[in-house]
Amino acid sequence: MANPTIVLLPVWGAGHFMPMLQAGKQLLASSSRPLSLTVLLMPAPTAQSASDISDHIRREEGAGAVDIRFHHLPDVKLPTDHSGVEEFISRAVQLHVPHLRAAIIGLTSPVAALVVDIFCTPALDVSRELAVPAYVYFTSSAAMLSLLLRSPALDDEVVVEFEEMEGALDLPGLPPVPPSVLPGTLLERKSPTYKWFVYTGRRYVEASGIIVNTAAELEPRVLAAIAEGRCTRGARAPGVYPIGPVLALTPPAHAEAEEQPHECLRWLDAQPPASVLFLCFGSKGFLPKPQAHEIARGLERSGHRFLWVLRGLPVDISRGAQDPSDANLAELLPEGFLGETKERGLVWPKRAPQKEILAHASVGGFVTHCGWNSILESLWFGVPMLPWPLGAEQHFNAFTLVCDMGVAVPLKVDRKRDNFVEAAELERAVRSLMGGGEEGRKAKEKAMEMMVVCRKAVDHGGSSCASVKRLSEDLLGGAVVLPNCLVITAGK
């Protein structure tokens, strides 16, 4: 009989697909018995996402990974009448459920488990139907997981809109949470995305376990609260496996063949240690001209060195395009800014190698959109942050960075003005982080502590390494589905 396979169902975003695949590879490496991965791929809705995923698959296949198989699911007619990305993805997954079921039944290997993305709760129905253990791969923080698990109870307890509440929310394991930092999905209780969030919180307790891209020492109080059932009152607490930070730190094979390092890295080579503020707003982040002008003025007045990745609007944003374009700096920046700051600043208008930049000794701070993967990369390299959230759960992440972890200096972001930041506020925050003051010094010290914590966790004998090992053994000991759809227990 063929070796058992772990079936992965990621969504198409690079921040979801790549960490899940990396986690799967860690499971293969830590298993005491041979395992394989079967990655089921839903067609990506944008050309850029499809290209990114295809490039990554080619690199994996070129590396000769014989224990990883990619299976493309058929196209479906994607929904057009949705209220947000959460509803869009959830409905798209629902449309793929028949193809998912057929793909699993048709496998020639026994199935150890189905691991689904945070958005793929409809796939839990397939796992129950086929008696396959199902695990959720949670791409955000344990703090965000606690909010999701707690949301059904909050829905019953809070009778007004969250922003109308007096006082803060009680989330086990966290400081009191101001309603103003909650994800946008929770701010309109009549919206479909709110209903999706609460529904997802209810469904997660059905999973055999939840795999979280964090470390036990990174979020100890929150993880303890989840394990003790304080986030799922009245329902069983699912098993949680903190296996992070899950980061793909090895450069692609084609990058190793390049003769010259990236221009941004060459520029950093000429800067003093820990002197440069790095600004980057994620793979989907772009800024309108008025905000770019405010950033330029704030950076210029701060007097500090900077490397700013500035992207332009998507080429066809009117048709729903989401991927930023290469920026036209002459159009976006104030006249004379580049010339006046050329001795201490670089504005880069294209994609940039974020991990390599954060790893550089010249970088001393990071203005981030607070995507969880970017946060983990910054912590891995011990770089303190200025949090500038733009959407999704990023305002909540920013709150935890400042008030729970202590690795960031606060930045006042006007959420009611599309997350606008004034030049004077950016100047103040940059000086606080980079200027040697008490607030910045504490954030830097804490970021360095977290760097040590993260690296110890994934090292041999570390907490995340042990969690991966425990997960792989649990997968081997669970139910498997044979190609003829009979359910047996592994090892019998």
UniProtKB/TrEMBL annotation:
SUPFAM superfamilies: UDP-Glycosyltransferase/glycogen phosphorylase. InterPro entries: UDP-glycosyltransf_plant, UDP_glucos_trans. This is Malvidin galactosylase UGT88C3. It comes from Aegilops tauschii subsp. strangulata. Its main location: endoplasmic reticulum. One of its GO terms (molecular function) is UDP-glucosyltransferase activity. Pfam families: UDPGT (PF00201). It is found in: Endoplasmic reticulum; Nucleus. Belongs to the UDP-glycosyltransferase family. One of its GO terms (cellular component) is endoplasmic reticulum. CDD domains: GT1_Gtf-like. Pathway: Pigment biosynthesis; anthocyanin biosynthesis. The keyword Aminoacyl-tRNA synthetase does not apply. It catalyses: malvidin + UDP-alpha-D-galactose = malvidin 3-O-beta-D-galactoside + UDP + H(+). It comes from the Eukaryota. Keywords: Nucleus, Transferase. UDP-glycosyltransferase which uses UDP-galactose and malvidin as substrates to catalyze the biosynthesis of malvidin 3-O-galactoside, an anthocyanin conferring purple pigmentation.
